[in-house]
Amino acid sequence: MDMYEDIIYGELLEWKREMMRKPTIGNKLSKNIQDKMNGFIPEKFHVMVTEVIKNMVKVVILGSEYTTLEPITYMPIIEREMLVKEKIQLYRKVATVSGASTGFGGFFIGLADFPILLSIKIKLLYEIASIYGYDTKDYRERLHLLYIFQIAFCSDKRRIEVFHILNNWKSYSDKLPLDKENFDWRIFQQEYRDYIDLAKFFQLVPVIGGAVGAVANYKLVEKLGDTAMNGYRLRYFH
């Protein structure tokens, strides 16, 4: 390996250790508290988020408007990752502006940020996949994107399960049927909703909503970008 590969391999090993970390008592306690807090959030809010995520997942599985990007071939890993980092920075800025503007707009305008943010994240993942050289016209690559998305925003218990899938993606994907519906969107939307509900709920609060929305969106896109990079590094070193 060259020097850059040595650096990112070390980062990958650290990420793998983080992904395999067992849930602590504190994690379980936090999850219980979050579940109780979710009870205070209006049911209409939960229903709306669930439907948005469900429909977006179906869009990804069917591959409609996001599959126009062509995979980049014959490029050194260091140049690929420079492009990926530029994309993450760009989408992070877009998400930050969206969170701030919708957050300052009050409750109903704040709700609009959910589909906007989800679309931003999915589009970012498609661009990252193409930069690493993978063709998202293949539905198995789109499923890979969804598993990356899921491991970025899920409970500790589910995180370990998804990591095993990503870490053994070649053998897993080889066994996938031709059925494009082979993905449990129910688990996906529930884990994602539970992960972001509390932070995004405060975005709907007048006055502080704009600041909360900007910071939350910035952090969420940053986390997704970092997760995606390590997810594709797994395949690179395999």
UniProtKB/TrEMBL annotation:
InterPro entries: EcsC. Pfam families: EcsC. This is EcsC. It comes from Clostridium sulfidigenes. The lineage of its organism: Bacteria, Bacillati, Bacillota, Clostridia, Eubacteriales.
